[in-house]
Design brief:
By secondary structure, the chain is an alpha/beta fold. It has one domain (about 5-154): Mannitol-specific EII, Chain A. It has helices at about 5, 20-35, 40-55, 110-125, 125-135, 140-154; strands spanning about 5-15, 55-60, 60-65, 65-70, 75-85, 95-105. Strands 1, 2, 3, 4, 5 and 6 form a 6-stranded mixed β-sheet that branches. Strand 2 and strand 3 (about 60-65) form a beta hairpin. Helix 2 (about 20-35) packs across helix 3. The radius of gyration is 14 Å and the shape is globular.
C-alpha cells in the first residue's frame, strides 16, 4: 500500500489554523466530509471516540487520528500541517504540528492496519518531517508525502 493510494492532492491542508485538538479534528472532519461525502459530524464523532480510547498523538509533533465509518467504500487519507503547534495529548507531551488523518470502511481490518503502519513508517523519518515542516504549499506537501514512492518505482 502506497501513500498515493490513500492521499490525493485535494486532501492536503498546508495551513491548518486550529487552536486545539478538538478544533483540529473538527476542521479535518469538515475537509474530509467534502471529499468523502460522509457527514462531518459523523466523522468528528468517530475521531473523538477513537481519541477517548487513547491519544493518537504519537510523539515528535505527529498525530495520526483514525477511525472506521460504515459509509465509506475505501480508505481515505488527509494530511494537515498546523500553523502553530497544538496540544494533542501526545504520548511525549509535545505539541503537534503534523497530522495525518486516516478514515477506513468498517470492514477494512487488515487494510486499515497496513495503512496505519505505512503512514507511521513515513512519519517516523525525521528528515521527512523536517521537509514537511519546511514546505509551504499543499502541492509541496503532497509531493513530499508521495515522492519516496516515485524513487522506489524508478
Amino acid at each position: 500500500m502506497e501513500i498515493s493510494d490513500l492521499l490525493k492532492p485535494e486532501a492536503v491542508v498546508a495551513h491548518l489554523k486550529a487552536g486545539n485538538k478538538k478544533q483540529a479534528l473538527q476542521d479535518l472532519a469538515r475537509h474530509a466530509a467534502a471529499i468523502t461525502g460522509v457527514n462531518d459530524r459523523k466523522i468528528f464523532e468517530t475521531l473523538l471516540e477513537r481519541e477517548r480510547l487513547g491519544t493518537t498523538g504519537v510523539g515528535n509533533g505527529i498525530a495520526i487520528p483514525h477511525g472506521k465509518l460504515a459509509d465509506l467504500k475505501r480508505l481515505y487519507g488527509f494530511f494537515a500541517r498546523v500553523d502553530k503547534p497544538i496540544d494533542f495529548d501526545a504520548i511525549d507531551e509535545q505539541p503537534v504540528d503534523l497530522i495525518f488523518l486516516l478514515l477506513a470502511p468498517e470492514g477494512a481490518g487488515a487494510d486499515h492496519l497496513k495503512a496505519l503502519a505505512r503512514v507511521s513508517r513515513l512519519l517516523r523519518d525525521s528528515s521527512m518531517c523536517e521537509k514537511l515542516r519546511g514546505a509551504d504549499t499543499a502541492d509541496g506537501l503532497y509531493m513530499l508525502l508521495t515522492q519516496s514512492e516515485a524513487h522506489q518505482a524508478a
